[in-house]
Fold this sequence. Notes:
By secondary structure, this protein is mainly beta.
Amino acid sequence: MKKLLVIPALLSFAAWSSAGEVAPQPAASPSDWSGWYGGLIATTAFGTTDWSDDGEYHLNDECYLGGLVLGYNWQKDYVVYGLEFAGQLGKMEEEDWPDYHFNDLFDIKGRLGRACGDWMPYASIGYSFSHYDEMGLGTTMDGYNLGVGLDHKLTEEVVVGVEYSLRSLHGESRIDGQHVNAEISTISLRLMYRF
């Protein structure tokens, strides 16, 4: 009789234990950042030009640009990587010599980021060029860019972001042949649409 009472008790305990176990949940899928995107950029810039004979000059404190961005992302699990092109117009004058100024910035870069839900931090590297005006004579400076940024989805289609970039550009003066190195830093606000 005691054995008959023990068996239901053991079965009840086993059932209670099983009920207390939580079934394993499937891992959450990373947010999808893949595909085309494009939008607007608003930028403030600061930096220096370093002339081989004349020394270093600072850019004006009030340098602003605006333009367009177009890019494409691929995604593997949480890793997001892609290519991006950005073009911006705006005058960046030297502080002491306003007749010497950059007229634009163009960037082609690769990006590598991580999908963190609606947020995506990333780093970038690429090629940049800019048209530089010396008292009416134009030349082109080019070099590399490095950057970091953070994008945030407001909706599945609308993305806002902030980005810091450093560009190291090089060229030659058309007036006296001096070699010119420019270090231009920018902070940009971005509004983009995914399509």
